[in-house]
Amino acid sequence: xxxxxxxxxxxxxxxxxxxxxxxxxxxxxxxxxxxxxxxxxxxxxxxxxxxxxxxxxxxxxxxxxxxxxxxxxxxxxxxxxxxxxxxxxxxxxxxxxxxxxxxxxxxxxxxxxxxxxxxxxxxxxxxxxxxxxxxxxxxxxxxxxxxxxxxxxxxxxxxxxxxxxxxxxxxxxxxxxxxxxxxxxxxxxxxxxxxxxxxxxxxxxxxxxxxxxxxxxxxxxxxxxxxxxxxxxxxxxxxxxxxxxxxxxxxxxxxxxxxxxxxxxxxxxxxxxxxxxxxxxxxxxxxxxxxxxxxxxxxxxxxxxxxxxxx
Length: 311
Description:
The protein is an alpha+beta fold. The protein has helices at 19-35, 121-136, 229-246; strands spanning 7-10, 13-16, 39-43, 53-59, 64-66, 80-86, 89-93, 109-112, 115-118, 149-152, 160-162, 171-176, 194-205, 216-218, 224-226, 253-256, 261-262, 267-272, 277-284, 287-293, 298-304, 307-310. The strands form 9 sheets. Strands 10, 11, 12 and 13 form a 4-stranded antiparallel sheet that branches.
């Protein structure tokens, strides 16, 4: 591992950067990534590559009828489980591209034993790119994770952009609406009467531009120069995008519903836990009806998280 301390121009003197100055560069690299993420998530109608999340709820059992007496509870159908599947999160990686090659003078300089050297690409990975990826894949949702994604139950979150752009949830948790069932309407109401409990939305964290001290590099004529901001920012943007998408040394970013660091709200699937509310209705002298309605208290059947990792 070769972590280097870059040099900067301190009033005409070459000086090693402080840890704060290096951290500011890391923040700028994260910001550059947020301007054009190379690993993206989008909201699709179905068939998303991250897989399926199931919402389950109860509906009333089928109506039992008799011409002579109320059907017994033992003969009426129990409330049935309704399942709706959501596969709305799709992941994509930018197409292959070739970032700026290391010429031997491409990257910032550092000093060792009184001599000045240009960082190698390996040095840059250890000093800047890999630490920036570590910030991006952390479990928090601050500007240090700009350009990456999280889940919220709110369609609008400060400092983030709702991905579908149309307030489209990636998952809806529903339960049986017990107020929709009544013994007086047995046979006249729908078996399935869902009510929405929570919607879950996909967001991308917005970036925040920050001030930083530009390091020094070796020009083609071997003189030293402070990087022009546009040059340095373009260079690190290319390489952080490439690292996030195509790193071969364990720093490529990926998303999953099963492994990695959790991001944002857990996507909860809740369901009523009762065994059925048996009710009867006599419509005429020879029309006896019975039915079991959803009942019980809400319980969590499953919780799924959006997860981010590096590999």
